[in-house]
Amino acid sequence: MDVRRRPTSGKTIHSVKPKSVEDESAQKPSDALPLPLYLINALCFTVFFYVVYFLLSRWREKIRTSTPLHVVALSEIAAIVAFVASFIYLLGFFGIDFVQSLILRPPTDMWAVDDDEEETEEGIVLREDTRKLPCGQALDCSLSAPPLSRAVVSSPKAMDPIVLPSPKPKVFDEIPFPTTTTIPILGDEDEEIIKSVVAGTIPSYSLESKLGDCKRAAAIRREALQRITGKSLSGLPLEGFDYESILGQCCEMPVGYVQIPVGIAGPLLLDGKEYSVPMATTEGCLVASTNRGCKAIHLSGGATSVLLRDGMTRAPVVRFGTAKRAAQLKLYLEDPANFETLSTSFNKSSRFGRLQSIKCAIAGKNLYMRFCCSTGDAMGMNMVSKGVQNVLNFLQNDFPDMDVIGLSGNFCSDKKPAAVNWIEGRGKSVVCEAIIKGDVVKKVLKTNVEALVELNMLKNLTGSAMAGALGGFNAHASNIVTAIYIATGQDPAQNVESSNCITMMEAVNDGQDLHVSVTMPSIEVGTVGGGTQLASQSACLNLLGVKGASKETPGANSRVLASIVAGSVLAAELSLMSAIAAGQLVNSHMKYNRANKEAAVSKPSS
């Protein structure tokens, strides 16, 4: 049977018919009560407070006359009944939905925006921005909507859900549909909510709090979005994800999730231990190249790493009336005699956050204060921010003329290329090195030591200097940093400073072997908080043996993860540079970074 968006004669797909706009405007929750809503509210408030006062007065009199409290008169019984009734009404937020659901009938408009809420600034904006699209009738999004329920063929015998082949889409023809589509049928309540979201009377962001079901909220938001935009989300998965786990911490207003494949490079032999490194990426050849570098390192005895620094930074900006006053605060903060007092104020915000240093910079009458602190196994941005706020509050006592312009003044510097991170470091500063044997360079990497050393000097050092690079004296460190960050639940945006890296190569042992190293001064990682607690990312951390907080030594797991990132960058740098030196870069990407279908089509027939 050919399924069309408009029902034809014969068997049709039935869905619940949405109520008309006239019906919606004609029916209100308050219609269930015999009196106007404002009279009911006034009556319940009056009864509630009157009976409370009456009962308290009676019980006080009984205590005074030693009369048992359980001996009640008829008036007291009536007062108790009135108290319970009025309390239930008020508990149900003026009782309309509660009374309807228990006594009268199911609510037809439980999502109506309250009068008080409509008068807020947000409500006014929503009313002014109400959409005029006739989405309910002009656009049928049912074929691409999330399967909240399934369609039923209108036949006396066909009562079970069926899966029908989907036709070529009419409205969403630019997006391929699956071969079979489950046709959803929305219930009365869900359909009403979707229409309210489309109309703008219910904010999309409030669905989770109103429904109490994060997955249902995502499904309703998704359907509303499809109707508003006229675009299909059929290729974006909805099922198979725990939406409760991201509520209030990872993502707002979800409509699905993106699938990114995770590959494994390794084993990476680092500091005497083997690690299988998870990499989430859609770039072909990246995992394979990193894996080849891991093999070369393993065959040469492994790599070693050294942690140089471990401290997250936050730099607020404050302003004074004169530059002289700004300089006075700078001298106060950098005076070693005051450090312990400032540390006490800073450290009270967390049992892991410990102030390490404060460095200041002045621009006119503006002062930038760069606080650095340890953060345990957390990446630590929130931790250091809370500590900085405590210090600012403390400084207001001695510097009441200090005007705090912003908690972050970009002297930190977070998620931006900055020389201060390259020079001073931020997060974990790591150096990782290995000596690759000459025969491994020839057999595994398919090149020679001399070619690698020359290429590194002309490409990573001289070429980057010619480009005016800032922390970018490497081949592709950000590729590996980002892939590992996504796989392990780090903040992908912090690859900007975390990818600061200088790759060095030098011939050793009379030119027979290759010494290769990467120096990365600002790797920002954590093993607790944020996306690290999601199931998939937590599994990748568990694979590396650094899941959660270290019970023996606070911060040990995050430091190991930073070393693994540096070691993986070392392997990837080694492999890519070898491919370039051997002239294999294009061939490798043609083999691993192109779809098989395309390769098959372009391959000449024999």
TrEMBL record:
EC number of this enzyme: 1.1.1.34
Top-level taxon: Eukaryota
Main location: endoplasmic reticulum
UniProt key word Endoplasmic reticulum: yes
Nucleus among keywords: no
Cell compartment(s), UniProt: Endoplasmic reticulum membrane; Mitochondrion membrane; Plastid membrane
GO biological process: coenzyme A metabolic process; isoprenoid biosynthetic process; sterol biosynthetic process
Ranges that cross the membrane: 35-56, 77-96
Membrane topology: Multi-pass membrane protein
Record pathway: Metabolic intermediate biosynthesis; (R)-mevalonate biosynthesis; (R)-mevalonate from acetyl-CoA: step 3/3
EC top class, as a word: oxidoreductase
Alphabetic keyword roster: Endoplasmic reticulum, Glycoprotein, Isoprene biosynthesis, Membrane, Mitochondrion, NADP, Oxidoreductase, Plastid, Transmembrane, Transmembrane helix
Name of this protein: 3-hydroxy-3-methylglutaryl coenzyme A reductase
Organism annotation: Hevea brasiliensis
